[in-house]
Amino acid sequence: MEILTPSPEVRLTVAQCFRTLTTSTDPKDLVPALQTLNSYLDEGPGNKTTSSQRAEFRRAHFTRSLQFLVSNIQADWVHSLTATQRSELWDGLFLKGPPEQALLVLMDGIGEQSASAGLDHLVSITEKFLQRCRLADLLWYYCQQTSPSDSPQLRETLLGRIVCLPDLTANKLHLNNKPLFLPQQYYPLLAAEMFTALEKTCQALKDGTDCSLTFVAQTLGKVCVQGHSGLVLAVMAPRLSACSRSDMVWQRVSWKLFENVPQRWVESVLTGLVQAVNGPEALGRIIGNLVLTNKKAQFVITHKMLLLQYKYETRVLRIILGYLAADKDRRPLLIQVLRSVSQAWANPSAVKHTPLEQQLYVSKALLLSVSLLNDSELQELRSDLIHCMLDGMQSHLDSSVVRIRHMGMVVGECLSSRLDIGGAALKFEYDQDEETRELLSLMTPGTGDEPEDEPVNVVDSPQETTETTPHADSEASKVDPDSDLDSDDELTPYDMSADQELSKASPPRYLRDCLETLTSSDDPVRVELSLRAAEGLVRKNAFAAKEISVQLTKVFLHLEDKYNLSGFLSLRQSTMVALTVIDTIPVTQYLTTEFYSLNYSLRQRLDILEVLSLAAQELSKPITETKDQLISVSNSSSADLNPYPGDNPVHWRQEVERRIQSKTRRLTKGATKPPAKATPNHYAPVAGHFFFPLLRNFDKPQVTFDLLGTDHLVLGRLIQTLGLLMHLAVNAPIAAQMGRALLDFVWAVRYHVDQTVRRGVLFAVCSVFLSVNSQNLLVDLSDQLFETRTWLADVAEGDPDADCRSLAVQSLVLMDQSLKKQLQDPQALSLES
Amino acid sequence: MSSPAPTPVYTLRGAGGPLNTLHFSCHDADTPLLYSGSGKGLIHVWNLNTRRAKKIVKGHSGNSIIWVSTLQSTDALISQGRDMLVCLWDLSEGRSEMVDSVWTGSVGFCQCSMLEMSPGNHLLAFPGEQTEEIKIIQLPSKTPVCTLVPDAKVGMVMCMKLWQPDSGLGPLLVAGYEDGSLLLWDVTQRSVLSQAKAHPEPVMCLTFDLKRLRGISGSSEKNLSSWVLDGQNNLQLQDNVTLVNPGISQLCIRGDGKLLASAGWDHRVRVFGWKRLKPLAVLQYHTDMVQSVAFSDHQDPRQRLLAAGSKDQRISLWSIYNEGAETG
Fold first, then answer.
1. Are residues B124 and B20 in the same domain?
2. Tally of structural domains, chain B
3. Among B4, B266, B321, whose Cβ lies nearest the Cβ of A502?
4. Where are the WD repeats (chain B) (predicted)?
5. What is the ipTM of this complex?
6. Which residues of A touch B266 (CB under 8 A)?
7. Do B40 and B115 lie in a common domain?
8. What is the rounded distance in angstroms from the CA atom of residue A262 to the CA atom of residue A654?
9. Residue A458 — φ and ψ, nearest 5°?
10. How many CB atoms lie within 10 A of CB A153?
11. Beta-bridge mates of residue B144
C-alpha cells in the first residue's frame, strides 16, 4: 500500500515548479515547469512519472496547483506564453485532471475574479470543460465509488456548483454570459451527461462491476427541486423510457436512480417525471414500484397530485392512474385512491368551498380510476361507489353553478352506467360542451399504445401521396358534367321566411280583450295571439294600459305556459316590462310586494326580479331617444331571454366592465375617456320605488320562502338585481341613500357559502362605488368604508371562486380611486370639515 | 343571400266586389288591357298604362262573373256568369253591347275553356245542366259538338282545359272532378282516354303546359299535384308540392313555361319554377283569399306582369323574374 504513503518526492517537485513559476519570467524556465505538472496527469506511455506519483499528485496537489495558477492568472509570465503553449500546458491542467477538483477551482475562480481578461480566460476554460463532456466524467467518477471517499461537505458543495452553474455565471457575467451557461442549454446538457454516466454504469454492471448511483440521483434531485425538472426530464425521460423498453439492466439502473433520490427531493422529481413521460407504461418502466417502497413517493403520487394539486393536464392524470393500475402489486393503491377520490368528490363541503377547477380535476380523476377498475374490483367497491354517487350528485345538483351541476350529471351518468344498477343508467339533459364531452370521453379507455419514443426512421413516402393526388383531382373534376342547364336554378328564390301557417283567429285589438282572453279562454290560438299582441297594445295605448296595469301584471305573473307556445317566456316577460315602464309606480309596488308574499314559485320570484331589472334598464335610457327606439331596444333585449337567469351573469358583468373600463386610468393609453355624461332619464325619479321595497322583508322567512336559508339562488339574484338598480341610479339624488342601504344589506351575507350570492354581493358593492359619487361616499359611508375595505382585501386573497376574487380586486380599485380623488380635492376636504 | 320578399308594382282598386277572374290582353303595346270579373256582375277593363278602369261592363244582371276571356281574332269579350249564361260582347269603338249568349244551365263554379281552331272559329267547353256533364259547342255558330258524361261516378265537374294536341288527334280535354280525379277526354271520340286520382279532395283548379305535355292541379288541401301525358295519352301522376296552408283557387303557368303561380286561400300568391316546382317566392299583399292569378302576354318579356285578384276587392300587379327587372 505504498500509494497511501505521502510521497515527499512529488511534493518537492510541485513546490519546485511553483517557485520557478513565481520567480522566473523566462519562458525557457516556465515551460518545463508547467510540463512537469502536466506530466503527472498524462497517462501516456512515454511518461517518466510512476502511477503512484500520479495518484499522489491527483489526490493532494492538483487542487493546489490549479489554485496557484488561478491566483497567478494576471502574472506577466502567463502572458509571455504563446497561445498554443497556453492552451496546451495551462488550460490542459484544468481539462485533464480530476474533473471535480477542476470544476470547484474554476467556479471559485470565476466567483472571485472581477471582470478582467483573467475572468474571460477562466470562463472560456469552463466552457471547454463543459464541451468536452467533463461533467459526464465527473458523474461517472462518483458512480464508480461505491463508498464515499470524500467528506459530505465537499460533495454538497460540488453538487451546489454543478446544479447552480447557470446562476453563478449569470450573477457574475451579467450580459456577457455565454449561451452555453444559460439554463435552456445547460440543463439539457447536464441531463445528457447524467444519461451518459448511467450508460457507463449499465455497461459496468454488465461487466460485473459495482456502481453507486447516489451522486447522480442527488444531482437529479437537486436540479429538480430548483425548478429545472422540465428541462432535465424532457431529455432524460424519453431516453430512459426507450432504453428500459427491452433492457432489464437499464430498468434496474433507472429504478435504482429514482430510489436513491433523497426524500426531500422526491416530490419535485416525480412531479416533473409524470409530466415528461408519455404513458403509464413508460412511467412504470422508469420508476418501477417506487410508490410501494417509498412513503414519500406514495404520498405524492396517490394523494398530493390527485387531491391537493389540480394544475396538471388530463394526460398526467391518465398516466398516474394508469401507472397505478398497470401492476398487480400497485392495484391496491388504485383502489385506495379511488376511495379517497370518491370521498373527495362526494364531500358537500368540498363542492361549496373548493375552486371549480379543482372539482373538475377530481371528477376527472374519479372517472378515470373507475374506468380502470375490472369487474371484480367493481363489485368490491360497489357500495362505496353508489354511496359516493348518490351523495355527491345531491351536493353537485344543489349547487347554483351550472358547470358544477353539469359535472354532477356527467359523473352520475358515467358511474351509474359503469355500475350497471339493475340495468337502469341515469340519464340527464344537459347541453354538451367541451367540458362535458371531455369528461364523458374519460370513460373510454385511452388510445392504448403510447407513441414510440424513438422516431423510427420512416422512409418518407411523399411519392405515394403525390401519386394519389392527381387521381383524386381528376375524379373530382369529372363530377357531374351533365348537370341540367335548363333548370329552375337560374331563378334565385326570394326570402320566404314570412310564409307561415295562417291562423284562423285575428289578434285582439284592445288590451281588455287580451286580459279577457288570457284569464278565461281555453283556446290556445287566441291565447297565443293575445300574448303576442299584448306588449304592442300596452306600449301603443299607455292611457288604457294604466287603467288595468296592475291587474294585467297580476295575470301575467301567474300565467302558465299551458299550450307550450314558442317564445312564451320572453313574450310574458317583455309585456311585464312594458307594463312596468308605462305605469311604473303602481306596478313596481305590486311586484315588490308580491316578491315577498306567500305561494309563489322560485321561478315567479326570479321573474319578478328579472322584470324589475329590465324595466329599470329601459327607464334609465336617456330621455332624448324617441319612443320607437325605446321599444326596439327593449324588444331586442327580451328576444334573447335566458330561461335560467343567474346562469349567465355576462349581461350585467359586461355593463360593469364597461363602466370600470371607462373609470380606470390607464397610463399607457394616454388620456382617459371621460365617464359617461350624465343625461336625464326616467329612472332617477322612481329608483326608490324599485329599490327600497325589495330590501324590506328579506329576513322574515315564510313557510314557502326562506331567503336566508335554502333559497340562496333567489338571494343571489336579488342582490344582483339590487346591484343593478343601484348601478342604474348613477347621478340620481337618491343614490347615496340607496348605497348606504345596500351596503348595510349585503353586510349580513358577505360570507355566504354560495358563490353566486357572493358574486352578487361583490357586484352590488362595485355598483355602489360606481354610482355613489365620491364626496357622498366619504361623507355618508365613511364608517362602513374601512370595514368594507378589509373584507374586500380578504376576499380578493382567499375566495375559492376566481370571479369573486377578481370582482373584489375591481371593487378595491374603484374604492381607492374614488377615495383618492376625493382626498386630493381640497374643496371636498373643507366641506367635510 | 336571398333577397327580401317582393312587393307589388302597383294595385288596382275600385272593382267594388270580390274578384273572381282575370284576363290579360296585351297584344296592343299601346294599350295593354286587363279584364277582371267581379262578384257583383261587373267586368272591368283596366288600362295598364293609366292604371284606371277604361270601361266597366255590366252584365249577367248583377250575378257573379266567374270567367272572362277574349276572342283573339275578333277582339270580342266572352264572359261566364252565375246566371247560367255565357255572353259574347262587342266592345269595339266604345260600344259595350251583348252580341250573343249561350245558356249553360250549370249552377256550379266551373269555368269554361275555349280553344281557337282557326281564325274566327272557336270551340267552347262549358259545364252542362247535369253537374258532371261537359258540353262543347262551336262558336260563333253555336252548333253543339258533343256532350261528355263520365261513366264512373266522379261527382261534379270542377275545372277543365281544352287544347289541340300536336299529334294530329282531335282536341283533348282534361277535367277535374269533385272526387279529386282527373279525366282526359278525346273530344272527337267522346271517350275517356285516361283517368287519374290526383287529390283526395275536389280538384279546384288545373292548368296544362302544351309544350311539355305536363299539367298541375290544386285542391282544397295542401298539395299541388303535377302530372304528365305520356305517348299513349295516359295521365301519369308526378311529384307533389306541399304548401304551408291549404286551398288553391287558381294556377297559372307563364307563357315561357318557366314560372307557375298559385292563388291561395291563405291570401298569398306562390311562385314556383315550373320545371322542378322549386318554390321561389311568396307574394303577400292581400288580406283575403286570392281567387285568381294571371300572367300577362306582353310581347316584350321585360314588361310581363303577374296579376292577382282577391276577395278583398283589389288586384295586385307584380313584376318578378323578368330579365332586366331582376337586376334592379
1. no
2. 2
3. B266
4. 283-320
5. 0.77
6. 502
7. no
8. 52
9. -70, 125
10. 8
11. B137
